[in-house]
Target: Adenylate/guanylate cyclase domain-containing protein
Amino acid sequence: MEKLKPLFDQLFAQKVPDQVLKKSNYNVFERIAETRDLTTVLLIKEQLREMFGKKGKPYSETIGIHPDFIDLEEGESRNQYICSLFLDISGSTKLGLKFPLPTVKFYKNAILQSAIEIFQVFDGHIHRLQGDAVFAYFGHKGMKKSDAIINALNAASLMQAYNKYTLSEFFIENDLDPLKIRVGIDIGDEHQVLWSAYGLGQISEVTSTSIHTDLAAKLQGQAPRNQILVGENLYSYLDLPEEFLKVKTYTENGEKKEAKHILYDSNLKVYYGMRLFDWEMYLKSFAFLPKEQSAIYKSPEDFEIICQVAEESNNIIQYKSNSRILEKGVALGFKISFKKNLALLKPSSIKWTVINSGMEASEGEDTLIFEMEEYKDKNICVQYTAYNGHHYMECSFYDSQNRLMGKDKFGLYVNDEKLPMKDIGVYDT
Model:
């Protein structure tokens, strides 16, 4: 996280010197928000958007009604998909028993402000702040469902990393207990989500009615601390690999058991799965983010895999790892780029390897891993998207003694938006 941490540290409201914090008995918290440098925050958000392949301004910088439904008239309802995300601060209720109110406010607001900023980086819309929780929507009428899911996963993963590497460090340095956050995410298809107003007259809000919005909140409630729990529609629609998914386990009467379902009703014959999303493993699939590596040269400090996409308009544009969905049949050009003092490095051997995942690739190929022999020892490799799922292009290079000098993987998503979402509710026909 070395590349992200400087941005994380600046994004945080403000570091308070130890001596000031401790001498003030935490009363300084009351003044921290007032000294917040909004210009710096906006700059960091722009840098994060660029880093993760986002262009222009965030989709939404407001709270309340989703922008797609501002024109919804009284008594009107509308069907439209949405990906719902709930984030909650675990154990925050007891803060008031330990600290004065300014301290409690600082604790909670440190998480809430950070969540708002990071969710906006990934085009999320903040629907509601609920005490120590954030309810956000990802997706809109001009966005593919796959991209809404990807944005939600990227936002939640980055938020967990931010809490672990910056917020927790700040609290520990100042003799405070780090906060734990839990995230639940699920998505409902068009016919599974109804948008309308709740309430009466001026005391009302436009929001979503969907079992999948409800399940996002329920998933958050069952998520372990500092973890992300996702619903079946989400991981099945993207056909996420087992590499990123874990079955939640618990201990009952000394026996370890698995919890695979967020809904399990044998009478109604309703079964709806849930999985823990391994955000730390997932962040390792971003070629532009640092990760632990045993080779001599490391990515992206010494080298980086870069990808360009040839779109239908014949435009050649850069594609950042896991930034958005790619259609089938798209040409991808991968290149290994050596940095600074390694620019003149000429490895004796370069190997490109495709690592596929998902049902379509399993059914369509004899193997999910194959070397691109025609691009052996070349700095570039061309490939075409073919199967739904999350895939890798791996590049490794060796010295004259065939010793590994460096290796990294470039993660990407492919989806034709044709996979059905699971129906578990009652819908109008």
Remarks:
- Confidence is low (pLDDT under 50) at residues 13-35.
- Residues 67 and 291 are 37 Å apart (CA to CA).
